[in-house]
Amino acid sequence: MPTQIIPRAQAQRPAGVGNALPLGTRMAEFEVLKVIGEGGFGIVYLVQDHMLQRRVAIKEYMPASLATRGQGLEVVVKSERDRSLFDAGLAGFLQEARMLAQFDHPALLKVYRFWQANGTAYMVMPFYEGTTLKATLKNLGAPPDERWLMGLLAPLTEALEVLHAERCYHRDIAPDNILLLAGTGKPLLLDFGAARMVISDATQALTAILKPGYAPVEQYAEVPGMKQGPWTDIYALCAVVYAAITGAKPPAAVGRTVHDGYVPLVRSAAGRYSPSFLQAIDDGLRVRPEERTQSIDALRQALAIDGAGAGGVTVIVPSTRPPAAPAPATVLPPVAAPAMQPMPVPAAAQVASRRPPVLAWGLGIGGALLLAAGALLWLQRPAPAPAPATGATGPTPAANTVPVAAQVPAAMSPAATLSPAAAWSPLTEFDRIVQGRTPGFDVQAGAQQASLRIGRDRLAFTVRSSRDGYLYVLAHSGDGQWLLMYPNTQATQNRVRAGQAVTLPQANWPLDTTEPPGEEHFVALVSENPRDFSALQPVREAWFQKLPTGDAAAAVARAHTGAGSAFAGKAQCATPGCDAYGAVRFSVTVTR
């Protein structure tokens, strides 16, 4: 990446946007097409990647109160007395990108590369469309029900748990910082402008961007005994739920320390939601940090959220007034660049008004034709049609829809503990594979796009292991079809190294997407030694091995008495303890 921006001769600065780069400006392979949004700290652009022939989003560090666009497109500080503050902000911009690069979760943002140039810095992100939770709640016309809210809280709390495990706190959660992705309704946590890595008490001096009603009291000043921590994000998240239920944000936390006029939800919303749900939100909104719910794990327990993970969560529109079905999401593949690093942008999304779909694998005539061309069709059962909107006024106005750079989806959480006697199903068998993993043998995996558009996108996912081993990927559809996807006849060498990022499918066995829409589920397993799946008596189908389904699969599962699952295969070694492996689940959503 060059360190200088080269404007094209025909580049023109957008009218009314004085600090934005001129349209047509080139940064290596990237060409500025449009200004998506300009805030107080940065500008986000829609950009064409000419090398990969796709569109992405780029965010530029531009604190309008401190700097302006000078000659030659250089960003210059307005006054030398602002230099130290500008430089501190620039360092924070880059530090935050490096920090967020470590996270890989479907409800978090991700940046693919960043660089410094022209006196400032830039980040490249994937490009999605959707509607903010704030706009969605306004369009619903009535408070959402508990099931709808739980559909948001499950993936959001999981994402915060990932952040907090690394002592990173968002500190700016609000309805306008939560995106509901078009086509799926899955939530995405946006705007980490206030997020910081918290390593010691010294970081308490960092200033956060506060939203009255959503910011807890400890964010307003350095008060002894009121340090920031997981409870800080818990307050803001519970304030979001409070606003969804009541239609108004909670009283400002500072005012509550003098006179607490907060009316508990267990009284104000009684009868409309379960008492335990309302009590969990009230406990997360206690003014004093030490009296508040202390961890995301404790909040999830209070809400009775299990460990199913965020990857498969679909937000269900409440029956009170569901919005009209959204237009297809614009989902663009990520920039294939060296690891260079995430960031937030203006937000927006539409809630999907359908039940989670069920998919099926198939290789009919269409599949055979694609295989002949070097690609595999994904065939699925149609999802139920959206329920008609009652009293709805039609699709969300265009003014409420804003393109957004979004997080690449990550793997689902480790599965909840399952007993061997639990009712058998393909998904529970995937959970048993994950359950049987070796402690400390960590595997991360996730699709590069949360949603795949029919006829336009190809599946791509990345796997990384904490140990050397052999990689196996199993896939299944909602009707119980199983495939050993990797290794296969086109890719037989599945040895991976610790820390190595493996991207699949490879170029010689691409997987295209076709009708109808729905969900696909996967397990990535890395084994210390090669594994043998012959006991499952797989049948070769095209490039892959098809595993037992239905009653045959259930019989195999019942006959297995060891830890984990028979569908994890068996290690090809005789040494005791040589069966060590790591595994993780993830999924993708297919949309029109």
Automatic annotation (TrEMBL):
Any GO molecular function: kinase activity
Class in the EC hierarchy, top level: transferase
Domain (Protein kinase): residue spans on this chain: 30-304
UniProt keyword ATP-binding present: yes
Binding locations of ATP: K59
Residue ranges crossing the lipid bilayer per the database entry: none
Keywords associated with the record: ATP-binding, Kinase, Nucleotide-binding, Transferase
UniProt xrefs under SUPFAM superfamilies: Protein kinase-like (PK-like)
EC annotation from Swiss-Prot or TrEMBL: 2.7.11.1
Sequence similarity: Belongs to the protein kinase superfamily. NEK Ser/Thr protein kinase family. NIMA subfamily.
Name of the protein: non-specific serine/threonine protein kinase
Lineage, opening ranks: Bacteria, Pseudomonadati, Pseudomonadota, Betaproteobacteria, Burkholderiales
